[in-house]
Specification:
It contains 3 helices and no strands. By secondary structure, it is mainly α. It has a domain of 31 residues.
């Protein structure tokens, strides 16, 4: 795994208060018609 990617994964709990596995669970429970829905959704809920 790329060092930058590992750093992002390691920092997720600090930056988002959720682990990568928790984010994956959250995303699996939502039904996004397109990939853009999953990538835009976090920005929408923060606004």
């Amino acid at each position: 795994m790329d060092a930058a990617l590992q750093t992002m994964i390691d920092n997720m709990p600090v930056k988002t208060r959720q682990s990568l596995s928790r984010w994956l669970d959250i995303l699996k429970k939502r039904d996004f018609a397109k990939h853009s829905g999953a990538t835009n959704w976090p920005a929408e809920i923060r606004a």
